[in-house]
Design goal:
Blueprint lengths: L1 E4 L4 E4 L7 E6 L10 H19 L3 E8 L4 H10 L3 H19 L6 E4 L4 H13 L3 E3 L5 E3 L37 E5 L8 E3 L2 E5 L3 H11 L3 E7 L3 H16 L4 E7 L2 E3 L2 E2 L10 H6 L4 H9 L7 E3 L1 H23 L8 H19 L4 H20 L5 H17 L8 H13 L8 H8 L2 H16 L3 H13 L2 E6 L2 E6 L1
Parallel strand pairs: 3-4, 3-11, 4-5, 11-12, 13-15
Antiparallel strand pairs: 1-2, 6-7, 7-8, 8-10, 9-10, 13-14, 16-17
Helix pairs in contact: 2-3, 4-5, 4-6, 5-6, 8-9, 10-11, 10-12, 11-12, 15-16
The chain binds one RNA strand of 76 nucleotides through helix 1, helix 6, strand 14, helix 9 and helix 11.
Length: about 500
RNA sequence: GCGCCGGUGGCGAAGUGGCUAACGCACAGGUCUGCAAAACCUGCACUCGCGGGUUCGAUUCCCGCCCGGCGCUCCA
């Protein structure tokens, strides 16, 4: 496939350098709070990439780090009077629960910063040997930017004109140069710290990714991915740290996911447009709708997240799921319709080609919806057969292998979110319809539908419609068809 | 200020130097239905921010302008 490469500034072919396994590293979360939808856009787009690569038969070795030690974590945990491990545990668990809700697949390897301190220390020692690291009087270590002339090659920044001392942070007066960044931070009194051969302290933010990518993927690997904000300085610093030691490109290919806006503005708590995944689930939006809304705009474009967009995505998913139900449960005669078969072939080709072209998810959706319409028409006309069903099913399977929204896995995240809200004392934030829906069991729904069926048989449409209305108000949609009544949770 | 990205129907959004400018949502009319829902059909941008240029021809290339967003500090 072809994927934009930040390093080259062009759309390059993405292939495993060893011809077998694609080795990739993607920056994971800093677990100091619940993840917000901006975080998840990045993880979702990376998930789309991984799912598409797997669909095309590429083997993956995908590493994601979890930053479980940093300034915010230390500050928040000490404020709470607990260890950083106890503090982060909750957010790590929440993070994975959220990924599950959104259908984000697990990377092959998950690497935690606190479990790799020794690797980071080793790397800092090597940097020292290479003349790229120095220790200051307080016991901190810094990377010496002057030792890495290529600095800025990823973000295309020319820092040569930056004057030393122009904007020196008063706390960091010991650094040789204002732009030098921390590899290792000496602890302030009472702070979490590790005793190591390079002194007592904790790692700087950037060093973990260099150390862990090297550990799991080697000195040079295929792809490094993350949010656009990480390009500078985080990724630039990773490159400096790694390449100063290995003298090889850290990664050949770099992918950066664009930020999302919410209601046209950058998401921020002060703007009041800041949403965690849980906030949205409690409002009654389906995890699948959130997933589709966040991946339907190609990763390199700014995405404006709105509630209207979520409603839109919900409707689109409904259409796909309704069709899928018709396809699965319908009865078709043996045989095939050449027109359907031809459309299947074209649809699949166009779908794969769109994704192979820098993950154009917006374009990839189109042929799928085209096929849905064409198939529905054929079914309406009685010109859809058993072999058509099988062929169309295969296309939908490949669609769902990447988009992962047709198969309905929405009930579990809903239920968990409501449970969580109760535990956290946030029950007031749960949308009333959601509470009603969660409390309504399948058995209760089926009982009401049976009663409605009885009413309809005796042509008591008043009673039948009353039941339908009651269910509708609780978010249950009813569809009568020749094959009986169908219902779904809206 | 410097750098970067975008401005396509009511909304989201794809795309191309010249076929009827995808697709989704919404809306309107129709078919079907006890009524709905679902599904289908039809309609919905003579036009792609504005001005100029290149060209036989530009929404697509170039220049200028306006508007929106982002980065240059922690941040997915």
């Amino acid at each position: 496939m072809r994927l934009f490469n930040t390093l080259s500034g062009e759309v390059d072919e993405l292939v495993p350098s060893d011809g077998k396994e694609l080795r990739m590293y993607a920056c994971g979360p800093t677990v100091y709070d619940y993840g917000h939808i901006g975080n998840f856009r990045t993880f979702l787009e990376i998930d789309v990439l991984r799912r598409f690569l797997k669909l095309t038969g590429v083997q993956l070795r995908h590493v994601m780090n979890i930053t479980d030690v940093d300034d915010k974590i230390i500050r928040n945990s000490s404020a709470a009077g607990i260890s950083i491990g106890d503090y982060t545990k909750k957010y790590v668990e929440a993070f994975f629960e959220d990924l599950d809700a959104l259908g984000v697949q697990r990377p092959e390897i998950i690497a935690r910063a606190t479990e790799n301190i020794d690797r980071m220390v080793e790397l800092i020692e090597k940097l020292k040997e290479a003349g790229a690291a120095y220790k200051t009087e307080d016991g901190s270590w810094y990377f010496k930017l002057k030792a890495f002339p290529e600095y800025g090659k990823l973000s295309k920044k020319d820092l040569s004109g930056m004057e030393d001392g122009a904007r020196v942070d008063v706390d960091e007066y010991e650094k040789d140069s204002a732009r030098d960044f921390a590899l290792w931070k000496a602890p302030k009194p009472g702070e979490t710290a590790w005793d190591t051969v390079i002194g007592r302290g904790r790692p700087g933010w950037h060093i973990e990714c260099s150390a862990m990518s090297m550990k799991y993927l080697g000195d040079s690997f295929d792809l490094h991915a993350g949010g656009e904000d990480l390009m500078f300085p985080h990724h630039e610093n990773e490159i400096a740290q790694s390449e100063s030691v290995t003298h090889q490109p850290l990664a050949r290919h770099w992918m950066h996911v664009r930020f999302l806006l919410v209601d046209g503005k950058k998401m921020s708590k002060s703007e009041g447009n800041f949403y965690t995944l849980r906030d949205l689930l409690l409002k009654g939006y389906k995890a699948s709708a959130i997933r589709l809304a966040l991946i339907s705009v190609p990763y390199r474009h700014q995405l404006n997240f709105t509630f209207d967009g979520l409603v839109d995505a919900t409707a689109a998913i409904d259409r796909l799921r309704t069709f899928n139900g018709r396809l699965t449960k319908g009865k078709f005669e043996a045989g095939e319709n050449p027109e359907v078969q031809a459309a299947v072939k074209k649809s699949h080709q166009d779908y794969m080609a769109a994704l192979a072209n820098d993950l154009n998810t917006a374009e990839a959706r189109a042929p799928i919806f085209d096929l849905v319409r064409l198939s529905n028409t054929a079914m309406d006309q009685g010109k859809f057969f058993e072999a058509d069903r099988e062929a169309v099913k295969r296309v939908l399977a490949d669609f769902d292998a990447v988009f992962a929204v047709i198969e309905d896995r929405d009930a579990e995240p809903m239920r968990k979110a409501v449970e969580w809200a109760k535990q956290e004392g946030r029950e007031a934030d749960v949308a009333p319809e959601l509470l009603a829906q969660v409390s309504l069991t399948d058995d209760a729904i089926n009982a009401l539908l049976a009663e409605r069926d009885q009413a309809k048989r005796r042509r008591d449409f008043g009673r039948a419609d009353a039941i339908r209305k009651e269910l509708t108000e609780k978010g249950i949609v009813i569809e009568d068809s020749k094959d009986g009544v169908r219902w779904k949770r809206k």
